[in-house]
Amino acid sequence: RSGAVLGPAQIGLLAATGRDKVLVYPRPRVTVMSYGLELVDIERSPGLGQVYDVASYAVAAAAIEAGATVTRAGIINAEPRRLKETVAHQASRSEMLIITGAVGGSSAAPLQEVLRELGEIDTTRVAMHPGSVQGYGLVGEERVPVFLLPTNAVSSLVIFETLIRPAIRQSLGKATPTRRSVQARSLGPINSLPGRLGLVRGRLMRDAETGDYLVQPLSGAEGAPAHLLAGFAEANALIRIPDDVTEVRPGDLVDVEFLQQR
After folding, report:
1. How far apart are CA 217 and CA 250, in angstroms?
2. pLDDT tens digit string along 55-108?
3. By CB count within 10 A, which of 16, 23, 66, 231 is most buried?
4. CB-hemisphere CA count at 13 Å for 213?
5. What gap in Å lies between CA 128 and CA 142, rounded to an integer?
6. What percentage of the chain's residues is helix, strand, coil (to nearest 5)?
């Protein structure tokens, strides 16, 4: 059937019917770049005021897990003319561009100006947290989608899971491009900002006796750091808090979306 994943048994069935060619959805070509004068790649030691480029590595790995063919083009700091040439070249060989460090302050303005010369860019804040600071546009002659993400790896990964991963999965022909979700009982309190969709990292588990889903929030509690990547590394789910809910108490039911299974 249309949409079936071609594994060993499916290939065997095609061979049994004498079919040597079938139409398939190709893996989308995604290029991940990073921008920021403070960034250095991991082969170098950061100097004064510098940090490692973390977000582009994390997002590139997430795009591979989603099913894309990924090129990580590295840090693209350059003067405007060369920057424009680099982005235009990468757009010509990709179905999607992702640029980390492209939003979140005046330092990203030169890149955004270059992108507007190449197409249309919108950096309106999105009613979610973390990850409200982001951008989207279409660049180049082929109007290639470009996603602008912040430097912070946690925010970038949350944006990727919420908006970019479903786009990749849909381009692969998946009937359900979003991850599986369940309802779980929260094991701890969660605070969320009013008027925004809250996306809280959590550890999902099941009660051995009842089979009910339980989730331990790893962020979102008062005083818990929201920007640290270590908590994300321990998470296997995202808790989705509606924009009209500001407080979840222990024992409340919440909607939980699976992350990559480890």
Report:
1. 10
2. 999 999 999 999 999 999 999 998 999 999 999 999 999 999 999 999 988 889
3. 66
4. 18
5. 30
6. 25, 30, 45
- If one counts every other C-beta atom within 10 angstroms of the C-beta of residue 260, the result is 13
Which residue has tokens 């004498």?
18
Q: Compute the residue count for the chain.
A: 262
Q: Quickly tell me which residue has 């962020």 as its tokens.
A: 219
Counting beta carbons within 10 angstroms of the beta carbon of residue 230, is it exposed (0 to 12), middle (13 to 18) or buried (19 or more)? exposed
Contact status, residue 87 vs residue 115, Cβ threshold 8 Å: yes
DSSP 141: T
Whether pTM > 0.85 for this model: the answer is yes
Decide if 66 contacts 29 (C-beta within 8 A): no
Judged against a pLDDT cut of 60, whether residue 224 lies above it is answered with: no
- C-alpha 258/C-alpha 237 separation (Å) is 4
Q: Report the C-alpha gap between 203 and 230 in whole angstroms.
A: 13
DSSP annotation of 27: P
Give how far the C-alpha of residue 152 lies from the chain's centroid of Cα atoms, to the nearest Å.
12
Q: Are 104 and 130 in contact (CB under 8 A)?
A: no
**72 in Cβ contact with 65 (< 8 Å):** no
In sequence order, which residues have a C-beta less than 8 Å from that of residue 39 and are 6 or more positions away? Answer: 50, 51, 52, 53, 75, 77, 101, 151
Of 79, 63, 82, the C-alpha closest to 71 is 63
CA distance 124 to 103: 10
> What is the pLDDT confidence band of residue 219, given thresholds at 50, 70 and 90?
confident
**From CA 96, how far away is CA 90, in angstroms rounded?**
9
Helices (H), 18-172: 55-66, 80-92, 109-118, 153-159, 165-171
